[in-house]
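Notes, p. 3: input format for complexes.
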Amino acid sequence: KKKAFIFDLDGVIVDTAKYHYLAWKKLADSLGITFTHEDNELLKGVSRVRSLEIILGLGNVSASEEDKNRWLHQKNVDYLAYIEKMDENEILPDVVRVLDFLKDYGQKIVLGSASKNAKPILEKAKIINYFDAIVDGNDVTNAKPDPEVFLQGAKNAELPNEACIVFEDSLAGIQAANLANMISIGIGDATVLNEADFCFKDFTKMSNEFLLDLINN
Ligand code: B16
Ligand code: MG
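Output follows (217 residues plus 1,6-di-O-phosphono-beta-D-glucopyranose):
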């Protein structure tokens, strides 16, 4: 059967969370806000604007719109400097095996990411050509757990929501997939992603037989 497999980007295809962290950390330091790796977990799958609000909240800092916009801009400039050097070596293990398998079976491959930098990242990783549709932070107004990004993905793939399978590393993303009536597959820690229909530590743990079951059922 024809299904659409919707991939989140950060944490599913590539590990850009470390670069987001470094860029946010620089800003937090400059504002005298303590920002740890643990705090960074709160930002996974969360939009850029919302991430800044969370960080300012950690330090009880209030700021004008003008300051916030300047900081958002600077964070992105710093983040872009990190991803500038990215290449296909940063694709997470077995992602390409899964993409190839799905392509071989004639399945649709879609990106559903909150990032406004998704396209350049897919280009640098040299996998943009796998995607039949790309929906990212530039296309949606409502952030996950709102299902907008995945609903738009299904629409662009011209398939009903029930024929979509979502791979996500954030709980907000799993909730968004569930709200969209799609099959939700967590990539990461099953105790965190406890609302997912299925969960795998990473793609190396996901067999071709499992993928075939998703295609056929
Ligand atoms: P940008 P995903 C999300 O990507 C990240 O997980 C999140 O940490 C980030 O703040 C967000 O993209 C926005 O990214 O600043 O590049 O627009 O996991 O939905 O692929
Ligand atoms: Mg993610």
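The radius of gyration is 17 Å.
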